[in-house]
């Protein structure tokens, strides 16, 4: 089964964005925490502060002019509105406003008075908007009015002061000219009369020009501006209310949660998507097992009716059956990356049942010799039978001799189970000749051998079997496995001469389920220990190799088990 694996860079941009958004939604706790923090902050801001009121007045600024109605006269001549805005919030205006308010009983300091003032300039206008905010609506109106009047008064004072200074300067220039004119008038007559009269005429012209300028300055209209909008008492508080602050807090909190989720996603070593899993493992995704409430505590999903979980196992089995790499050897090693091996055991058992439905002779070998648990979990459906490959003298030996049993799957057929047993030397047992004869049964037409191995990164047991099984299926939870683990599994299996056929994803289990699985594994270990000590005392269990007869009268040989025929091959010895 060779499928081209497209890298993340080759995916289209909308698909990548959707994938990243789904990855962020994995951290629902951080998103909920951010929204909760935002809502609490918005509620605190809305309920902790007092209601404030804002009174607003608008002043139109104008420059001093001799004739505002003359053609070409402009009110903005010589006005820098930015400088005027700075003047409106200056200490000079605040001091004058504080004096006028003190006469009315408001003992506000100049700096405290300016603290609640905000002066803005609407674009493309000569208007200054005075907005004063405080907790008393009447006080806000009074102070806004006082500050606007103070600004106009200061501006008038400065304009009139400039006119007085210029008039004084003109008069100072004119005073010596008048004295010279008077002296020339006393010297009139004689031979120099013409020169004296000419100088006197020049002085008169200069004096007249100065007088004209003085008259023009005194005739200027010094009105600094107009109060276009008088401040009124506000009736409603300003600022955002509780609903708006809660909404803003929720939006800000959601953004904070998204940021925290993104940071968590960046530093998360776990697999973030199926694309990343396929790229890290270098193999396709065979299937994703659904979560079923009623499947807890039950190992075999196939045979319990038409459930989604059983159909997914059947789909994975059909996909493997059509895989050229699997069809060449018909041997499959099922393992997990690390940790709990319960999901891999369930997958191995259900795949064995699915292949049995196809009419295959299925042999399921539990190669987990450290904590074997497959036979106890299968329960009463597993019955002992004598293994076909047992040579003379090996019946009473250790594992795998004498560990064979038939597993009946209601409505599907049966498969043969070689249950694991605790041994002293696990590597020697896995590489022994009897295990090689078991695995070689996959060479028979119509036979399928499935090997359940311990987690590949926890023990080297799976690596010891890869060269003889070749095809490997990794069963994992994408939320628990790391990208580096998948890359390491790919390297280990490739270096051992095997091929990763694909990955099977199972849903994450809660803390309670993981705790129950650990307790069940401990109980199995204690039971195995008691059985082993009992056998040493001579009180062991009955010989599992003894033959049994099925309820339908047939023997326990899987070759006599009736199963569903399929186009994938007919078992050996069948018509």
TrEMBL record:
The keyword Membrane applies. The keyword Glycoprotein does not apply. The chain crosses the membrane at residues 27-47. Residues 516-531 have a biased composition (Basic and acidic residues). It comes from the Bacteria. Keywords: Membrane, Transmembrane, Transmembrane helix. This is Lipopolysaccharide biosynthesis protein. It comes from Streptomyces salyersiae. InterPro entries: Bact_polysacc_biosynth/exp, P-loop_NTPase. Residues 504-575 are annotated as: Disordered.
């Amino acid at each position: 089964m060779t499928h081209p694996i497209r890298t993340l860079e080759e995916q289209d941009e909308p698909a990548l964005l959707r994938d990243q958004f789904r990855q962020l939604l994995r951290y629902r706790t951080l998103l909920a925490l951010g929204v909760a923090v935002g809502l609490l902050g918005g509620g605190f801001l809305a309920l902790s502060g007092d209601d404030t009121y804002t009174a607003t007045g608008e002043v139109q600024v104008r420059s001093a002019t001799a004739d505002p109605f003359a053609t070409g006269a402009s009110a903005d001549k010589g006005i820098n509105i930015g400088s005027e805005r700075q003047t409106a919030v200056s200490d000079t205006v605040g001091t004058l406003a504080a004096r006028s308010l003190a006469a009315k009983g408001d003992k506000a300091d100049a700096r405290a008075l300016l603290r609640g003032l905000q002066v803005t300039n609407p674009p493309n206008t000569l208007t200054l908007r005075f907005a004063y905010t405080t907790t008393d609506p009447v006080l806000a109106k009074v102070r806004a009015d006082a500050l606007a009047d103070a600004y106009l008064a200061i501006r008038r004072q400065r304009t009139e002061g400039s006119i007085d200074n210029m008039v004084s300067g003109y008069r100072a220039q004119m005073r010596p000219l008048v004295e010279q004119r008077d002296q020339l008038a006393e010297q009139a007559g004689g031979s120099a009369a013409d020169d004296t009269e000419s100088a006197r005429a020049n002085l008169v012209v200069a004096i007249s020009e100065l007088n004209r300028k003085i008259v023009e300055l005194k005739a200027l209209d010094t009105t600094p501006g107009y109060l276009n909008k008088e401040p009124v008492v506000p009736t409603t508080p300003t600022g955002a209310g509780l609903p708006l602050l809660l909404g803003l807090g929720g939006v800000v909190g959601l953004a904070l949660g998204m940021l925290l989720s993104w940071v968590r996603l960046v530093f998360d070593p776990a697999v973030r998507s199926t694309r990343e899993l396929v790229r890290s493992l270098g193999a396709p995704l065979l299937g994703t097992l659904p979560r079923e409430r009623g499947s807890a505590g039950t190992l075999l999903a196939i045979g319990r009716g038409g459930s989604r979980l059983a159909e997914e196992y059947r789909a994975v089995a059909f996909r493997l059956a059509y895989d050229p790499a699997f069809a060449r050897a018909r041997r499959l090693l099922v393992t997990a990356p690390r940790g709990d091996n319960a999901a891999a055991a369930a997958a191995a058992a259900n795949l064995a049942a699915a292949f049995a439905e196809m009419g295959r002779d299925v042999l399921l070998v539990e190669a987990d010799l450290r904590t074997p648990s497959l036979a106890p979990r299968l329960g009463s459906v597993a019955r002992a039978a004598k293994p076909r490959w047992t040579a003379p003298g090996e019946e009473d030996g250790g594992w795998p001799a004498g560990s064979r049993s038939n597993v009946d799957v209601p409505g599907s057929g049966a498969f043969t189970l070689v249950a694991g047993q605790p041994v002293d030397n696990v590597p020697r047992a896995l590489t022994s000749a009897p295990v090689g004869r078991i695995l070689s049964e996959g060479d028979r037409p119509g036979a399928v051998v499935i090997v359940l191995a311990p987690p590949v990164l926890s023990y080297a047991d799976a690596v010891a079997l890869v060269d003889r099984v070749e095809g490997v299926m990794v069963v994992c939870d994408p939320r628990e496995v790391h990208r580096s683990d998948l890359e390491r599994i790919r390297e280990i299996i490739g270096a051992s001469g095997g091929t990763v056929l694909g990955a099977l994803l199972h849903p994450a289990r809660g803390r309670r389920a993981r705790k129950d699985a650990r307790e069940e594994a401990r109980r199995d270990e204690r039971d195995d220990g008691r059985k082993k000590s009992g056998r040493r005392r001579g009180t062991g269990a009955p010989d599992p190799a003894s033959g049994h007869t099925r309820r339908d009268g047939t023997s326990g040989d899987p070759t006599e088990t009736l199963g569903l025929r399929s186009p994938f091959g007919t078992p050996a010895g069948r018509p």
